[in-house]
Every structure is written in structure tokens, then in C-alpha cells.
Known about the structure:
Helix content is 72%, strand content 5%.
Amino acid sequence: MAKGLVEVFVELHAADHGWLIGVCGRLTRQELWRDMPGGVSVANLLCHIVEMERFWIDWGLCGESFVRDRQLEFDRRGDLSGEEIARSLTARRVRTQAKVLVVSESELKRPREFHGDVLTGAGILGWHLRHLATHRGQAISHERWLQCERR
């Protein structure tokens, strides 16, 4: 049986989140919060992912009210442990997937103004996966840089 958009979304989303949750245990607290030259820390990226999923899924896809302080996601400095970040990511993954699994076909097709564009619900899911994968790639590069720094 062929997979549809929702099934593919859940599969890719789970894979990305699995890696991101795993990095919380592979890096020390100091490493999680260490900024990459010219960039931000892995921890800041992970905090951003939790909030951006609220933005894309809760507000964009499901139309729930939402107030976001995006800059705060990147201004945080060492206030959470790897375990706390992993718990936050896990809870967000569960919420996101629960919402996506029950979204109706009509909501996937319905256009809405979102993030400076007109997107269908399906378009929001596609853009969200792209955004999530970009941040996973940044976190992978950051982890590799930290591993080199250990040597």
C-alpha cells in the first residue's frame, strides 16, 4: 500500500526527532550550549525546534492562537539540561504527531495565509519538514565540530 503525505510526515518527523533527542545524551551540557563559530548552540536550535513546531503545526496547520518570542529561543544560555531538552522535544514530537494524524483531508487541502504566503495544510507540512531537516543538518554539523574539538 502506498504511503500518503501524513504517513510520510510522521515517519520523517519521528526520524528527525529521534536523532535530535539522541544528541541531547551524546553531548555534555557545556557542549550543548556552546555556540558554533558564527552560529548558535545545539541547545538553542533544539529550543527553536520546539517553538517552531508550535508555530507551524499548532498555529499554521491547526489554527490555534499562539504568541511567540522567536528571539528568546536563541537568547537562552545554559538554563536547561540535556535531559530537560530531550523531554521537551519528546513531548513536542508526541503533540505534533497526534495533531497531524487527525487532521482532515479538507484541512490538508484548504489554503490559508501563513508565514507570508498562502499555503495549504499539506504545504505547511512540507515546509515544516524542510525546516526541521535544515536544523537537523545544522545540529549534525555542530556535533561533528564538537567531536573534532574534543580530540
